[in-house]
Amino acid sequence: MLLRGRRPGVPAGLLAMMLLLVACTLLIYPLAHLTRVSSLGVVYLLGVVVISTFWGLWMGISMSVLSATAFNFFHLPPVGRFTIADIRNWVALGAFVVAAVAVSSVSELARHRFEESVRRRAEADLTAEMAQLLLARAGVDEALSLIGRRIAAVFDLASVRVALGAQSGDPRHESIPLVADGERFGTLLIPAGIPQRTRERIGAGVVPALTAVLRAALDRERLVAEAVQTEGLRRSEAIKTAVLRAVSHDLRSPLTAMITAGAAVRAPGITAPERDELGGLVQQEGTRLAKLIDDLLDLSRLEANAVSRRVAECSVEEVIDSALASQPESSEFDVRVEPDLPPVRADFVQVERAVANVLENAVRYSAGHPVVVRARRLRDRVTIRVADRGPGISPADQERIFEPFYRAAGRAGAERPDADRRPGPDRGSDHAGSGLGLAIARGFVETNGGRIRVESAPGRGSVFVIELPAASDPGGGA
Fold this sequence. Notes:
By secondary structure, the protein is α+β, with helices and mostly antiparallel strands. The protein has four domains: 10-114, no CATH class; 137-223, no CATH class; 251-303, no CATH class; 311-469, Histidine kinase-like ATPase, C-terminal domain (Heat Shock Protein 90, 2-Layer Sandwich), CATH 3.30.565.10. It is built from eleven helices and ten strands. The chain has a five-stranded mixed sheet. α2 runs parallel beside α4 (87-136), α4 (87-136) packs antiparallel against α5 (140-154) and α7 runs antiparallel to α8. It starts with 9 loop residues before the first helix and ends in a 9-residue tail after the last strand.
C-alpha cells in the first residue's frame, strides 16, 4: 500500500533525510544511559530503511553515509571529531550501506511489480471496455471514437484514433493494422516516436483484443442489417400476398356484380323498376370498389413513408362532425365533446379519415345500439374514444387488428388468415370490409404524432382510443 503511485521528489527526500538524521541522533542520547553507545548505531537503520524504501538506492546510500558520519561525530569517542578509532565502527557503516542496498532493492522490486499489476489491470479493463463499447452500442463509428480516447488515457498519449479499413500513417502518426485471418478490419493510429516499451505494450495487449472485438462488432452489424433486410422482404412479401388476395377477391366481387348488372340491364323485357334496382347495384358496387382502391393507395403511401401532411390547427369537434357525415344514415351515435377543447395541430383530412374508419368499424359491431363517441382533454393531449357494444376482441387479436389485411375470425375468436375464410370486415367474418380500415387509421394517427389503441374484453364491447397532441394549452391541464 505504501509503495503505490510515483516515487516522491528529491527535495522531499532531502528534507526527510535531515529530519530523520536529527531524530535518530537525538534519540540515542537518552538510550545511552541504558546500554553501550557503540551498540546504538542500529537506531540509524530506521532512517536508512525509510529513505531507501521511498527514494531508492542512491538516496539510501547517502542516508547510510550521513548516518555513519553523524553517529561517529556525536556519539563515538573521540566525540566531536570525524575519527573512527574502533574497527567495529567501520562494520556499523558497512551494515548501514548493506541495509540501504537491500531495502532499496526490495522496495524497488515491490514498486515495479505493483506498477506492472496496475498497468495490466488497466489494460484488462480497457479490453473489457472496448468489447462493451463495440458490442453494446448501435454505431461502430461512435464506439471507435470513444475507444481511441480511452487508449490514449490508459497509455498517457496525446491522441489515438481507430479507423475502419486501411489507413496510412504520416510523420506525426504511426499506423498499426488490425488484421485477423488475412483480412484487415481497421487501423490503429498512435503518435509517432512514443517509447518502445509503450509501443510493445500496445502491440501485445491492445491490438489483438481490439481486432477481435472489432471483427465481432462488424459481423454483428452485418447480421443485423441482413436480419432487417430479411424482415423487410418478409413483410413486403406478406403485403404483396395480401394485396393479391384482395385483388383476387375483394376487387373481383364488386366487378363481377357490376358486370352482371350491366349485362342484365341490356336483357330484353326488363322493366323500369328492375332497371333502377340494377343501376343502384352498379352504383353501390362501384362506390365500394372506389373505396377499396383508395384504401390500397393510402396503405401503399403509408408503408413507403411517402405521406405528405398539410399541418394546421384543427377543431376536434369539426373533425368528428366530418367523420360522422361519412357514415350511413341508419347509424346512431351518442356524441359528447368536452367544452373548450383545445385544437390539435395535424392534417385535418388525415385525422378525419382515421376517425371515420374507426367509426365505420364500430358501426359494424354496434348490433343496433348507438356508438358512443367522447372527446376530452387529458393533460397535453386530446383523446377521442369510440365505444361499441359488440362481442369484444380477444387479447391475441388486439394488436394484430391494426395490421394490414388482418381479419380475426370474430371479435372474440382466434386468429384466422384471409386465405382460409370469406372476406369480411376488419374484425369479423360476417361483415363487409377490406381489412385495411384500422391499419390506415393507425398510419394516419401516428403520422400526425398521435397514438391509437384498443381496450376490449370478449363479450364486453370495445373502445378505440385516439390520442393527438393538443396545439395549445389554454386550460392548464385536464
